């Protein structure tokens, strides 16, 4: 397991412990647990979507434009202009692949939250 995955799991575990603690001291413990779990899963979902966009290369054009502007303003004669396609390929090789762990984790928590909501409505 990677270091960042351990950090995300510990963050999620801390959030679950926090939601259980909030639920323990409330009037309706299951409903409070569902609310906090839903909020945690939605926060992780947004983080997972940002991770998906970053690993998909959707922001490469912005970093290319900033690096091109820097090279244009500093006027280094030894710096060769680089085409966007070459820059994007280099970034893709450097970036590698992603398992989208955060999206999977948020999907599991959101599914659990929906399942508990259905269970709460039935009971």
UniProtKB/TrEMBL annotation:
<keyword id="KW-0812">Transmembrane</keyword>
<feature type="domain" description="DUF3899">
    <location>
        <begin position="34"/>
        <end position="117"/>
    </location>
</feature>
<keyword id="KW-0472">Membrane</keyword>
<keyword id="KW-1133">Transmembrane helix</keyword>
<feature type="transmembrane region" description="Helical">
    <location>
        <begin position="33"/>
        <end position="54"/>
    </location>
</feature>
<protein>
    <submittedName>
        <fullName>DUF3899 domain-containing protein</fullName>
    </submittedName>
</protein>
<feature type="transmembrane region" description="Helical">
    <location>
        <begin position="101"/>
        <end position="120"/>
    </location>
</feature>
<dbReference type="Pfam" id="PF13038">
    <property type="entry name" value="DUF3899"/>
</dbReference>
<dbReference type="InterPro" id="IPR025007">
    <property type="entry name" value="DUF3899"/>
</dbReference>
